[in-house]
Known about the structure:
two-stranded antiparallel sheet; mainly alpha; Four Helix Bundle (Hemerythrin (Met), subunit A)
Amino acid sequence: MIPSRLVPLLEQFDFACERLVGRLAGPVMDSGDGTETEVGALTDAEYLWEPVPDCWSVRRRTAGPGARATFLAGAGEWGRDAASYPHPWPPPFTTLAWRLSHLSEMLTLRADHTAGRRVLTRDDHPVPGDAASAVAAFEDGAAAWRKALSAADDAALDTVGYCTYPHGSDAEEPFVDIVWWVNQEVLHHGAEIALLRDLYRSSHH
């Protein structure tokens, strides 16, 4: 039985993820008013597009980190530009690839630190170098987080540190606040990704 206060948060999460995947993969997306709008699938060129100089993105490890980044986070042939605290100021502009990789990693690791073995780190999480793999990684991360949420009862929602994710405020907040936070991460990064798709389309006629 899903706690009643979790129901609207789950519905919001499901809608945000469905809308983002539609925006990325097509062939249609929810336009927001209930109508379906045709959209092309994300291409590798668009995934890696750097609209301004010195973006943070995902890169082959052999290329090394980008401007103002000090290392490439993640596992595999590709990594995501990163730097230890304090982060560069002003913050670097991040590409669609960076933002999507960040979302996928966050969802996958939080799921593991909520209902898994609670051992995954950023060094364990593969960073996709192509668009199709990146969209699939997001879908997998979203499904894992959704599964973790479906097992939470009222007591879990009130438990501080129920999720042991090490890269946020999880250890200091009730789990219901973390659920809300993850939703807003998907919503606001999803909006950023949608805007980058619009900019790419308009600049690559």
